[in-house]
Write a structure and sequence with these properties.
It is a single chain. By secondary structure, this protein is of the alpha/beta class. It has one domain (about 5-319): Alpha-Beta Barrel (TIM Barrel), CATH 3.20.20.220. Helices cover about 40% and strands about 20% of the residues. It has helices at about 5-10, 30-35, 75-85, 100-115, 145-155, 165, 190-205, 215-230, 250-255, 260-270, 275-295, 310-319, and strands spanning about 15-20, 45-50, 55-60, 65-70, 90-95, 120-125, 175-180, 210-215, 235-240, 300-305. The strands form 2 sheets. An 8-stranded parallel beta barrel has the order 1-2-5-6-7-8-9-10, surrounded by 5 helices. The longest helix is centred in the last third of the chain and has 21 residues, at about 275-295. It is globular and about 65 Å long. The protein binds flavin-adenine dinucleotide. Flavin-adenine dinucleotide binds near residues 52, 94, 125, 194 and 201.
């Protein structure tokens, strides 16, 4: 079932989860042990992130550096299929521009279609570690909007190579999700410009938006209001992540360009150990979730970061 159908049919707030594929060498049961406790909350769908190949530099015996390609967290599509098989729940794979050319993307979408997956979250992906800007693969996409266009073209039966056979092929029917940023995307010069490009993704065919994490619900409510004023009317699913370590007070704003309210910062700074930090993060996220639920938000999406314990406590408190 499509994410938008879940939203339209829901009479009360639903709770969805995002997981990461495990590190290379781990097993599918690692994923099941993350999801097993969360299934109790009847998630309408589970998102599985996509992680592009990275480059690392290894020193050779002669002292020269050799560039190696590694893929730390492969398996997004297989995990989606395993989730659907085991739990009978819709899985939403993330599909990114980074590292893909258009042909690879088309083949990936054909795989998803054969597996009965009818939702995709379309993203550009971040620049590589050693690059200060995002570079598209040759014949790939530079911005998520271009990838949305490609999926939408396939939804209309338009393949890259429109040979006779392909013209006769059945249409795809992907429900397309995209990312939105209540505190603006870090590369964007201002919110106005970010919303301009967000609207382009919706005009290209995106059906719903999932937000970057935020710690102040006002940011989300204002963002939704601004989107509506700009003519963006698709559902906007809020993304919530509980803080779980002191380090995140610095790493989250640096990585995701977001603000952490002072009240929360002060509480975490005062915490004597990791357990206390974690408890503060859980309580904060419960308050956020309660307010979103009371405001009639149809789905709240949780970034599990493959640590289900905190998320379990949060959803249990409001389920
Ligand atoms: P875009 O929509 O392409 O926007 C990127 C930037 O370019 C923005 O600043 C935008 O304003 C600007 N822009 C857009 N179009 C144009 C244009 N035509 N001209 C000029 N500027 C333009 N990353 C992963 O690698 N894997 C994942 O699984 C993943 N999952 C995510 C899930 C969510 C819910 C979110 C919020 C993010 C996720 N990310 C993931 C991170 C995401 O890839 C990064 O935030 C990335 O930097 C931007 O992706 P985007 O799809 O928003 O890009």
């Amino acid at each position: 079932m499509k994410v938008t159908e879940h939203i339209n049919q829901s009479k009360k707030t639903l709770f969805s989860f995002e997981i990461l594929p495990p590190l290379r060498g781990r097993e599918i049961k690692d994923i099941f042990s993350i999801l097993d406790p969360l299934i109790e909350f009847n998630p309408p769908f589970i998102d599985v992130t996509y992680h592009r190949e990275e480059f690392i530099y290894v020193e050779k015996e002669n002292g020269l550096l050799q560039r190696k390609t590694i893929s730390r967290r492969p398996g997004t599509v297989g995990i989606c299929s395993a989730i659907m098989n085991k739990y009978g729940i819709d899985a939403v794979p993330h599909l990114i521009c980074g590292g893909f050319n258009k042909k690879m993307t088309e083949n990936a979408l054909i795989d998803l279609n054969f597996l009965g997956i009818d939702n995709v979250l379309i993203l550009r992906g971040d620049p590589l570690k050693y690059e200060n800007d995002f570079f598209a693969k040759k014949n790939g996409h530079k911005y998520a909007v271009e990838l949305v266009h490609q999926v939408q073209n396939l939804n209309m039966g338009k393949y890259l190579d429109n040979t006779l056979e392909q013209k006769k092929s059945t249409l795809f029917n992907f429900c397309i999700g995209i990312a939105g940023y209540p505190e603006k995307h870090l590369e964007s010069p201002n919110m106005e410009r970010d919303l301009f490009f967000l609207k382009k993704k919706v005009e290209a065919g995106a059906n719903y938006i999932v937000t970057q994490m935020f710690f102040d619900n006002k940011k989300y409510f204002t963002f939704v209001k601004k989107c509506r004023l700009k003519g963006i009317f698709v559902p906007i699913i809020p993304g919530i992540k509980p803080i779980s370590s002191k380090k995140q007070l610095k790493s989250l704003p640096t990585r995701f360009y977001l603000n952490i309210p002072n009240q929360l910062v002060k509480k975490i700074e005062k915490a004597k150990n990791k357990k206390m930090v974690s408890q503060i993060g859980i309580e904060w996220a419960i308050q956020q979730s309660k307010e979103l639920k009371d405001a009639g938000v149809k789905i709240i999406h949780y970034y599990t970061m493959d640590k289900p314990e905190n998320i379990y406590q949060i959803v249990q408190a409001i389920y």
